[in-house]
Amino acid sequence: MSLGQQLHPHLPFLRRYARALTGSQAHGDAYVRAALEAIVAAPEEFPADVDPRLGLYKTFHAIWSSSHLEDVPVSPGGSHEAIAQARLARLTPLPRQALLLTALEGFTVDDVSYLIDMETAEVEALVEEALGEIEAQTRAKVLIIEDEPIIAMDIETIVRDLGHDVTAIAVTREDAVREAMADRPGLVLADIQLADDSSGIDAVKDILSEFSVPVIFITAFPERLLTGERPEPTFLITKPFQRSTVKAAISQALFFDEATAPA
């Protein structure tokens, strides 16, 4: 099997990670593209002594760590890029990297130690620091769009444990839009397939046509959304999910939200 064939299944998830890290589909994809170009240009330098997925993320991090976010053109106003730049100017990205790599991408602490060239104890400390930053995030009102009661209850518990409020749990597209209009949320957690065969994607589109709000999509089939062929969600978690994954996604979505941007 060629190197390209080995890496191909991991690309959607690397794009997901890059977007969560940068808060932007365009910038995240640009870093992934740069990493792939580096691999194509010098395949002999690709790490051969580790799992291909680990080697792929290692290459990505070499590109990421050698770049300077302040050099990335940023749109004025409340764009995700401007918000990201304001936040990243105040925060060291390492804690977020450590949290995302462990909670969102499922790497072990030893793996992350390899990826970011730090001791395992330092990685563990970074994760703790990131969790502290999560707790310090501005409280938000959250709308949950989920038709499976047990999953909805689990998500609600996670959201409330993080100090946020739940405005409602909607099970259909119509319910979701009505609840969003009745009590405007600061964050939406949306399943893709809803109880009456309506679409969580359509519900979100309806809501976003009325006002801007960060959205985290939930699906058992992430590869259907992470195709690279159309605009894709910046924040996506996969069923079945870990509680830490949901916490990490919520923190990142709010991290890049205009409503909680630094002054």
Can you describe what's shown?
With 263 residues, the protein is of the alpha/beta class. Helices cover 53% and strands 9% of the residues. It contains 12 helices and 5 strands. The protein has a 5-stranded parallel β-sheet with strand order 2-1-3-4-5, with helices on both faces. Strand 3, helix 11 and strand 4 form a beta-alpha-beta unit. The longest helix is centred in the N-terminal third of the chain and has 17 residues. The chain is globular, with a radius of gyration of 18 Å.
Q: Helical residue percent?
A: 40-55%
DSSP strand count:
5
Average pLDDT reading = 83
**What separation lies between the terminal Cα atoms?**
51 Å
Proportion in β-strands: 5-15%
SSE arrangement, N to C: HHHHHHHHEHEHEHEEH
Short overview:
This protein is an alpha/beta fold and 263 residues long. It has 12 helices and 5 strands.
Which short descriptors sum up this protein?
12 helices; single chain; 263 residues
Topology of this protein?
Elements lengths: L2 H5 L3 H12 L2 H17 L10 H14 L14 H11 L2 H12 L4 H8 L3 H16 L5 E5 L3 H13 L3 E6 L2 H10 L4 E5 L8 H9 L6 E5 L16 E3 L4 H13 L8
Parallel strand pairs: 1-2, 1-3, 3-4, 4-5
